[in-house]
Amino acid sequence: MKSIIQVERLRRDFKVGSEVVRALKGISFAINEGEFTSIMGASGSGKSTLLNILGCLDAPTSGEYYIDGVAVSALSVNDLSVIRNRKIGFVFQSYNLLARTSALENVELPLLYNHTVSGRERRERAEHALEQVGLQNRRGHTPNQLSGGQQQRVAIARALVNDPVIVLADEATGNLDTRTSYEIMSLFQELNAKGKTIAFVTHELDIANFTSRTVCLRDGHIVKDEPARPLSAKAALEALPPGDDI
Amino acid sequence: MNFLNLLKIAYRALLRNKTRALLTMLGVIIGIASVIAMVSIGQSSSKSINDQISSMGTNLIMVMRSWQRQGGVNVGSGNVQTMTARDVDAIRENCRHISMVSPVVNASGQIVFGVNNWPGNIRGGNAEYMAINKFEVTSGTNFTEDDVRNSAKVCLIGATVVNNIFPDGENPVGKIIRFGKIPLKVIGVLKGKGQNQMGQDQDDVVIAPYTTVQKRVLAINYLHMIMASATSEQVAMEATAEVESAMRIYHRQGATDDFQVRTQQEMLNMMNSVTGFLTALLAAIASISLVVGGIGIMNIMYVTVTERTREIGLRMAIGAKNRDILRQFLFESTILSLIGGVIGIFLGLALSYVASWILSWPFMVSGTSISVSFLVCAATGVFFGWYPARRAASLDPINALRYE
After folding, report:
1. Which of residues 24-53 of A touch B (CB under 8 A)?
2. Chain A residues close to B9, C-beta within 8 Å
3. For residue A166, which of A33, A51, A66, A29 has the smallest C-alpha distance?
4. Does the pLDDT value for residue B225 go beyond 80?
5. So what's the pLDDT on residue A244?
6. Where does B97-143 have alpha helices with state H?
7. What is the DSSP letter of A228?
8. Is some CB atom of chain B closer than 8 A to the CB atom of A90?
9. Does the N-terminal or the C-terminal CB of chain A have fewer CB atoms within 10 Å?
10. How remote is the C-alpha of B275 from its chain's centroid?
């Protein structure tokens, strides 16, 4: 199976004053195409640092990182921007949608930075992405006209619009209630079933249970990396007591 | 990222904060409007002064007698008797840039009609004298070349003279007045010209053929002065040179000239340098407000960058390059200042139009000041937008995404 992400002996040191903080102490792992991986760990475990490096927002102090076969360590700042634009879809905890901008335009945003995409194609792809998250009827709504779950769906559509090799989600359910969290996880499971590779950073075990592989970090090391049989988010959603938070 | 997308992003960002954008623009609007208005008003005033001087004859060229030395003694210019009618003919024949030329002799004396009298001046000229000095005849007629040839006892009188010797409102035309002992028939009345820029009353005048003044009043055969008119203001300098060389035909070569040629252009140049300086000063003061407007833009752009730190982080995360962010914010500040500039240009034009209407000056629009303002606006936007945009572009996407 093709590996989308491959990291080898990844280290990341931060200088805080005169001290050196070792956030990642040489970790190696790979994520294969079609995997739905959760990266777990308590705060300070290094999972955010890892995610930043995986997302090409940060560079490792040492070690190798390949995304879709490209060696990231050798790339310039501008090339990293292109990698982020073409190969990665980000989903954030706080959605990060542009205020007073319609859902469709928010979804179009990554394609605005890709000059190979024409205006018409941009629009078509954005509409398709909104369809995939079930918001085709909300394309003209601005974020303040959407619920939290809907906003996160728009954000997921934005992450899908450039057809990335991997979707990186950072605590994507952290701001949502249980029911909506399950709905979002159900959407991720659907996307994964269609073949999307997803890496999901979380510190909540019940969210990690919906993924097919769990990588646990502690103090900059991988302490656990094992495949799991994912629970169905849809089933969990149906099992919730009805009407408790609608 | 292409130009159109950038424009779209900047435009949308501005629309999101309409009131703020408008208030920010206000600085530039006021700056540009005041520059445009000040320059335009300055030019209007300069034009109006120009017109006033022109109305007295800007293309006027005067040949005066110059002082002379006789045996080492400076005898002044009053005794110079070398300027005669043949100099007038020489100028008429040899100067391409002279349209009209007239001999001038002056005399003063008492003007009498019936029981009224008035101390006045008589000026002798030829038929072109009136046109050269921009005198107009309101009633009656000008004298003719025949009158000049015959030393006819005719005259035209100015409004001040009319008021003083015809106090009852009689029509002076056809009446015989006396200038000293010489009876002269009034054949016309001059239209009032008011005071000249020296404060002299230009209507206190009697005009007669120069031959009449020479032979009948003064009994001389020389001239006091020659007045000529250049074909246009632009050629006044060339005309002056031509007149000088024409004058030298009958005057001593080589040694000091016994005449000097003066033009109104000198006066005009002085006035123009004064108004030009004032216009520049006003524009300089006004441009200070433009700088203040630019600082307003800079300030707001800093606020915008801080406020939109997360947006910047997001844009970087989804693939915006540093230069995309830089350009986005530069575009925003430039659009802001350009729109402000365009509004300012129209406001400035409106202001100067109103000002020129109130002051009844000619309304002058300078294409240069408009295009310069426009360029200055663009430059203001880029200059004052640069540092905020630089700051936005140099943000670290990780920190920017976490910014609260």
Report:
1. 52
2. 112
3. A33
4. yes
5. 56
6. 129-132
7. -
8. yes
9. C
10. 8
